[in-house]
Amino acid sequence: MFSALRDMFRLPDLKSRILFVLGVLLVFRLGAHIPTPGVDAKAMASLFEQGGVLSLFDLFAGGALRRFSIFALGVTPYINASIVMQLLAVVVPAIEKMQKEGEEGRRKIVQYTRVSTILFAGIQAVGMVLWLRSMDIIYVGGISIVVAIVTLIAGSIAVMWMGEMISDHGIGNGISLLIFAGIVARIPEAIMRTFTLLRTGEMNFLTLIIAIAIMIVVIAGCILLQEGQRRLPVQYAKRVVGTRVYGGQSTFIPLRVNSAGVIPIIFASSVLLFPTTVARFFSAGFAQTIAGIFSPSSPIYMILYVLLIIFFTYFYTAVVFNPVDVANNLKKYGGFIPGIRPGRPTADYIERVLSRVTLGGAVFLAGIALLPSLLTQMLGITTFYFGGTAVLIVVGVALETVQQIEAQLLMRHYEGIMKRRNKAGGILRL
Q: Any transmembrane segments, and where (predicted)?
C-alpha cells in the first residue's frame, strides 16, 4: 500500500492531478464556512437540530446548508439539471441526436445542463430565502434579500464549475467527489459528539457497538454490490488472414450487478428534496405538511425512495450499457456466446440477463439505502446522519477513484517496463 502511495507522487502527471483535486476540495470546504450575509446562525443551528429532510439536504451540501454558507445549495441544482437532461434525451429526438454527435453534441448538452443548473439554483435559492425569511432566520429585507439569492446562485455555479474542473483535469467524477468530501468532512465532528454522549452517559455503550456492527455490515455489502458481476462467456472463431491465424480464444462480457454506481442514490435523493424546496414558496402550513410527507422517516418517502432508486438504476444502466452495440461488435469481430445465435438473438439474450442482474442489484441497493436509517432511528442515534445513502456514496466514490488511480499506475508501469526492455536488449522500440 505504501509503495503504491509513493508511486502515485512519483509520476508527475498523476501527482499534478491528485494535487489539483485536493486543492479544489480545499476551496470547496473553505467556501462551506463562508456565511451568507444576514443569517441568524444560532436560529439556523437550532432548526437543524430537529433533523428530518433538512439533515439529508445538508448531507449533499457538505454541511454548508447548516451554516447557510455561500455554497448552501451544494450540487443539488446541478444534479437536478442532469436528471432532466438525461430524461429529455429519452423522449426528445433532438437531444437524443446530440448524444450521438460525438464531442460536439456532448458540448451542447453540457451547455444546456449549465443553463438548467442556473434555473434550478434560482428556484431553490428564492424558495429557501423566502422560507427562512418567514421564520425570521434571515433578518434582512429589501435589496439584502436579492443579495442573498444572488449569492446562493453564484455559489451553486461555482460548485458546478469546480465539479467540472475535477472531472476534466483531476481524477474521478467531480460532482461525486464534492459530495464525498462533504460527507467525510463531517465524520470527525460526529465521532467527537458520539463519544461525548458516551462519556456523559447519554448513550449506551451497547447501542454504539450495535451501530458500529451495522456500519461494518453495510460497508461490506456496498463493496460486494459495487464489485459484483455476472460474466457471460464469449468464444471467438478462428480467422486466417494471410499466413496468420487470429481468434480462437475464450473471454467473457462482465455485466455488473450495479452498473449505475451511486448515481441512482444521488438522483433519487435529489428528486425527493425538490418538492420540499418548491413548497416553501407557499404558506408555512403547506410547506410544513410537504416537509412532513417527504421526511426521510416518512413511509411515503421510503416507498418513493425505493421506487426511484430502482427506476434510476435501470435508467442509468440503459444509458451506459447498450446490448445492441455489444452484440454488433461481437458479430463484427467473429465473437459469439455459446448456444446463442449472433446478431439480434445475442442482443436479446444480453438484455434479458442484464435485466435480471440489474433487478437484484437495484433491490439490494434500495435495501442498503434504507436499512441503516431504519435501524439507527430505532437505536436513537442523533449525533450523526448514518444512512445507507451516505455509506453508499462514500464507498462507491472511494472505490471508483481508487480504480482510476490504479489504472493510471498500471498504464505508467507498463510503459516503464517496455522502456527498460528496450534499453537492456533492444527488443522493442517505442
A: 69-92, 112-131, 137-159, 171-191, 203-225, 262-282, 302-324, 353-375, 381-402
Give the mean model confidence (pLDDT) for residues 353-366.
Answer: 88
Q: How confident is the model at residue 115 (pLDDT cuts 50, 70, 90)?
A: very high
Please report, for the domain that includes residue 44, its CATH number. Answer: 1.10.3370.10
**Domain range for residue 132?**
1-202
Phi, psi values for residue 97, rounded to 5°: -65, -40
- 3-state SS string over the chain? CHHHHHHHHHCHHHHHHHHHHHHHHHHHHHHCCCECCCECHHHHHHHHCCCCHHHHHHHHHCCHHHHCECCCCCCHHHHHHHHHHHHHHHHCHHHHHHHCCCHHHHHHHHHHHHHHHHHHHHHHHHHHHHHHHHCCCECCCCHHHHHHHHHHHHHHHHHHHHHHHHHHHCCCCHHHHHHHHHHHHCHHHHHHHHHHHHHHCCCCHHHHHHHHHHHHHHHHHHHHHHHCEEEEEEEECCEEECCEEECCCEEEEEEECCCCCCHHHHHHHHHHHHHHHHHCCCCHHHHHHHHHHCCCCCHHHHHHHHHHHHHHHHHHHHHHCCHHHHHHHHHHCCEECCCCCCCHHHHHHHHHHHHHHHHHHHHHHHHHHHHHHHHHHHHCCCCCCCCHHHHHHHHHHHHHHHHHHHHHHHHHHHHHHHHHHHHHHCCCCC
Q: How far apart are CA 335 and CA 332, in angstroms?
A: 8
Contact by Cβ (8 Å): 132, 277: no
CB 45 within 8 A of CB 66: yes
- Is residue 209 in some structural domain? no
Q: Give tens-digit pLDDT for 241-266.
A: 666 665 567 788 888 888 877 778 77
pLDDT in tens, 271-299: 887 777 677 666 667 767 777 777 777 78
d(CA 16, CA 250): 39
Number of compact structural domains in the chain: 1
Strand partners, 39: 138
Residue 189 counted as domain residue: yes
Report if residue 262 sits inside a domain. no
Look at residue 391 and tell me if it is in a domain: no
Query: What pLDDT is recorded for position 393?
Result: 78
Is residue 303 predicted with pLDDT exceeding 60?
yes
Cell of 201: 452517559
pTM score:
0.71
